[in-house]
Amino acid sequence: MESYFPLHDGVSATSLLILLFFFYSLLKLKNIYHTTKHTPPQPSGSWPFIGHLPLLGKLPHITLGYLADQYGPIFMIKLGVNRALVVSKAEMVKQCLGTNDRVFANRPHTIFVDHLTYKSAMFGFTPYGQYWRQIRKITTVELLSNHRIEKFKDVRINEVKSAIKVLHDHCMMENLRGNAVDSMTVDMKKWFNDVSMNSIVRLIAGKSMKEFYQGEIYDKYAKAFREFFELAGVFLPGDALPLLRWMDIGGHEKKMKKLAKVMDQIVDDWLMDHKKRRGYKNSQPQDFMDVMLNNFETGQEISSIFDTDTIIKANCMNLILAASDTSAATLTWALALLLNNQDILKKTQAELDKVVGKERQVEESDIKNLVYLQAILKETLRLYPAGTLSVPREAIIECTIGGYHIPARTQLLVNVYKLHRDPNVWENPLEFNPDRFLTSHKDYDFIGKNFEYLPFGSGRRLCPGISYALRIMHFTLASLLHEFQVLSSLNQMVDMSEDFGLSNSKATPLELILKKRLPHHF
């Protein structure tokens, strides 16, 4: 765990202690009212001033899961000046995201939000209100509705098939070099990231990332997208104790400022290019950035807070980030789980051979008949949800959860990871068993109505991109497993260690040997 408390040169330790003592006294006075209320249990180990922040190490969802074992499915932690309610049982989650969904519809404002969401212009991080409703409506109708997803299916299908063809071409090159016949070693974690990112960027900006950039520039920008999720998962001392923000303990705010410039440059270039091109064509909008520009040109008023360019850039980037990283992470986990469970992998490919055959490629229309493949994605999202801890919400007003008083502005953290491993709901919860979604849990879906299973959230803040995500993930995984036999390059179990960040990604690369398994050629 990295240290949060190195002092900058020239800072007087005595002055800092006096400042902290004064601040701590103010906090104690502020909390006198709340101590008279029946509040949730609070774990021991809270530090003066900073509360439980030191407990949230490299993998907070694991730490909070251990605390749930000790203190129950609902407890409160202190993060400096902030309070966070942590829930991990379906009945408590239902009270928060069902009964009190509107109460917890807000997002807390953090240093991350300041720098990397255009000061909350991204609708995924913006406070609940009129602006959020308008942007979510535009996004849902113009990009993520079933009608739009079907209309632009050729875009994502072509991106996946193009990526598969690249793998085939590499296999042929290896063969020509005299290496193993029709096989090669591939970092599948990177491959999934590239496929996911290229697909959504093409829908948003009209061309894929590989068409915009090559070589080192492509790698630089792809890395920037990954860093966004890493920094989003950091608990900053400056958020817990705003008076210490100027110190930038750990240097994370400096990193955020630098990253924000890189990401803004990417999307600003796209926007300027779109504006130039609009003067030379009369066709209907072809991508989401065109749609956003069209909405403003027709006089639709969206916000008095953000300017037009900021709204377009922020929300195009929001969609790219949300769709690329989470889908890639889930596909990486799915393939790793299959490699560690060879019997399930064989059963999956047998289903593909039966439904699709070996004389043609997978089509998106095949997915509805690949019920075991669908179960694999469901089980992957149960064991390794893309967001192990839900994106924090914040209570607009005070409320009651589980008989406890919850003050206004309390942050809410749903430990989805712990929720999905509840032994009272899931038999052998640590076991990878897709069959459970064909039998005991066959009625569980992704839309947040079953509070025992929330890979995409629930309520007003439910992810609007569920349909798109499922289509791209199912089609990508089906195409890969149909075309290639996948083998561990080390001939051993795949390392399942997790990485740190908002999205639950695999810590290590997934380097595999791919071997062609079908007779046809491109």
Poorly predicted segments = 1-11
Alpha-beta content class: alpha+beta
CATH class membership: Mainly Alpha
Q: In the CATH hierarchy, what is the superfamily?
A: Cytochrome P450
Give the overall silhouette.
Answer: globular
Backbone CA Rg:
24 Å
CATH topology: Cytochrome p450
Strand/helix succession: HHHEEHHHHHEHHHHHHHHHEEEEHHEE
Provide the spatial order of strands within the biggest beta sheet: 1-2-7-4
Please give the domain count.
1
- Looking at the overall shape, the CATH architecture is Orthogonal Bundle
Number of strands: 9
Averaged pLDDT: 89
Biggest β-sheet description: 4 strands, mixed
How much β-strand is present in the residues? 5-15%
Write the layout of secondary structure elements.
Layout: H1 13-30, H2 32-35, H3 60-71, E1 74-79, E2 82-87, H4 90-99, H5 111-116, H6 130-144, H7 146-151, H8 153-176, E3 183-187, H9 188-205, H10 209-212, H11 215-232, H12 237-240, H13 252-278, H14 288-297, H15 308-339, H16 342-355, H17 371-383, E4 393-394, E5 399-401, E6 404-406, E7 411-414, H18 416-419, H19 466-483, E8 484-488, E9 511-516
Parallel strand pairs: 2-7
Antiparallel strand pairs: 1-2, 3-9, 4-7, 5-6, 8-9
Helix pairs in contact: 8-9, 8-19, 9-15, 11-13, 13-15, 14-15, 15-17, 15-19
